[in-house]
Design goal:
The protein folds into 3 domains: 26-108, Alpha-Beta Plaits; 132-295, FAD/NAD(P)-binding domain (3-Layer(bba) Sandwich), CATH 3.50.50.60; 310-416, FAD/NAD(P)-binding domain, CATH 3.50.50. The chain is 31% helix and 24% strand. The protein has 10 helices and 25 strands. It has helices at residues 2-42, 64-68, 95-99, 144-160, 182-193, 239-252, 332-342, 363-374, 420-426, 433-450, and strands at residues 51-54, 75-78, 81-84, 105-108, 132-134, 172-178, 198-202, 218-220, 225-226, 230-231, 236-238, 257-259, 263-269, 272-277, 280-289, 296-297, 310-311, 324-328, 348-353, 378-382, 385-389, 393-398, 401-406, 409-412, 416-417. The structure holds flavin-adenine dinucleotide (FAD).
């Protein structure tokens, strides 16, 4: 009798745990589906670089890949299969592929002939324009180790283009590198090692995207040989440690980095390029574009935008305690920055957005920001546009007329302008161009087929 009770108890406990597990499992799965739908609406499901290519037939939906991802919410399980939910957050670490017990995942770029954001490159990184090279994440492959390796490869290929260097005016550099992220820094270091004259131009500062990581972010660095410095001894660093390494490379090897110029065009051809920037032109025999894929911050083009108090990214919210801050933008980054600032003692936050309501943000952000607006911790000015930024105030135009806002700091977080249009203007060919040509040809054929006497109408024109 006693034994029966014990068995019943054990059985009951087992059933209860099973029930809880199944419930949690189903909740997680329906949350994944919701995230997928929401991210699709916001266009965030699409990856920017390499991403997990999942063989749906082989996937057993065990979720090991989901838990293995160091960036956390890239993958999810929908309809019993692993899917990319938040592609924009994928860095390409490849931990999901390593963890998959059935080998259903590999990391790649997909069919690059169909991607109009992947430039066509030779094995060494040369574009369709001789003398114009691409290194780093702009090529499609993210990760610091890939960027460093590619920076080295393009400079070695340039040095191998051979023979005695063409003679020319001394102000013509052997190489102008655009971008001082891992790829550009690596290119600059190798150029110095191989005796090529080189200048690195960056609109923002040495460090590239790493500068924009959140404070104390843990960075995973896969094994890589840093030019002149050798292999990094550890696999994990916090952002600030990595930036110190960057600074020491800059200092110790005398890299010529010019911070501030934004490159707006490249003219000329191999042997005599002109790199056009917002701070004048540079001439070079070869140009290496190491721009990354995040592009330049979108500007408002209003008077005062170049004042020191205007920034295009928020790195350390704590530094703005007691300040009167205006955040401009209506996307997730603007809203997240406004919320981060609203939690700092004495920080008065105003959020200005050109549309009357915040619509294109994640559900979670929407709920949190609405609560802060309701508590008067964020003043939301919907339907407003910044007209002028002055040292102690900002003038906005609102639905009922001008608004004068006393102000100490401005963050313009209105998204980025991807670098692809600039590349197209320069003349760089993309993988998807072929597809565009095919599409245009198909459209022409369809139109011809529709018109009387066209191809497919059965009537041959004379
Ligand atoms: C949140 C986050 C976390 C990440 N975590 C990791 C990680 O843990 N491990 C890892 O290996 N990788 C990580 N990455 C990826 C890694 O940061 C990138 O792959 C790497 O920085 C790419 O290097 P890059 O030199 O090609 O380009 P970037 O680092 O993007 O540098 C490009 C530079 O070009 C400059 N530039 C762009 N356009 C112009 C222009 N027109 N004129 C002048 N300058 C211009 C920019 O200012 C920038 O400084 C992460 C990325 C993000 C966003």
């Amino acid at each position: 009798m006693e034994a029966t009770f014990i068995w019943l108890g054990v059985g009951g406990l087992f059933c209860l745990s099973l029930l809880i597990y199944v419930r949690q499992f189903r909740n997680r799965r329906s949350a994944d589906l919701e995230r997928l739908i929401q991210n699709r609406e916001l266009g965030m499901d699409r990856p920017t670089g390499q991403y997990p290519l999942i063989d749906a037939a082989a996937c057993i939906g065990c979720g090991t890949c989901v838990s293995a991802c160091p960036e956390h919410d890239v993958l999810g399980i929908v309809m019993g299969r692993s899917v990319v939910i938040n592609g924009a957050r994928c860095i390409g670490h490849g931990k999901c592929a390593e963890a998959c017990p059935v080998g259903a995942i590999r990391i790649g770029l997909g069919d690059i002939t169909k991607r109009d954001d992947i430039p066509v490159l030779s094995a060494e990184g040369q574009t369709n324009l001789p003398g114009l090279w691409i290194a780093g994440e702009l090529s499609g492959f993210a990760l610091i180790n890939n960027a460093v390796a590619q920076g080295r490869k393009v400079i070695e290929a340039i040095a191998a283009t051979g023979g005695p260097r063409e003679v020319g005016p001394s102000e013509v550099f052997d190489v102008v590198v655009v971008g001082a992220g891992p790829a550009g820094m690596s290119a600059g270091l190798v150029a110095g090692e191989l005796g090529l004259s080189c200048v690195i131009l960056d609109q923002q500062g040495a460090g590239g995207t790493i500068l924009q990581y959140p404070r104390r972010k843990l960075v995973m660095v896969q094994p890589v040989e840093f030019p002149r410095m050798g292999r990094l001894p550890r696999h994990e660093y916090v952002k600030e440690e990595l930036l110190e390494i960057w600074d020491s490379l800059h200092r110790d090897y005398g890299l010529d980095i010019r911070v501030g110029p934004r490159v707006t065009g490249v003219k000329g051809r191999k042997g005599d390029f002109t790199v056009e920037t917002t701070a004048g032109n540079w001439r070079a025999r070869h140009v290496v574009l190491a721009l990354g894929r995040r592009g330049s911050p979108r500007r408002l083009n209003v008077p005062g935008e170049d004042l020191g108090k205007v920034a295009f990214q928020l790195i350390d919210a704590e530094a703005y305690k007691g300040r009167r801050v205006l955040v401009v933008g209506g996307g997730d980054s603007a809203v997240e920055a406004a919320m981060g600032l609203a939690h700092q003692d004495g920080c008065q936050v105003t959020l200005s957005y050109r549309k009357p309501e915040l619509m294109r943000i994640k559900q979670r952000n929407s709920e949190r920001v609405e609560a802060l607006i309701a508590q008067d911790r964020i003043a939301f000015l919907g339907g407003t546009n910044v007209k002028t930024i002055l040292a102690d105030r900002v003038v906005l135009e609102g639905p009922t007329g001008p608004i004068m806002l006393p102000n100490d700091e401005v963050f313009i977080l209105a998204g980025g302008v991807p670098p692809f249009a600039l590349l197209r203007e320069i003349g760089v060919a993309f993988g998807g161009d072929q597809k565009d040509a095919e599409r245009a040809e198909a459209a022409r054929a369809a139109k011809a087929a529709e018109s009387p006497g066209g191809v497919g109408s059965g009537v041959q024109s004379a």
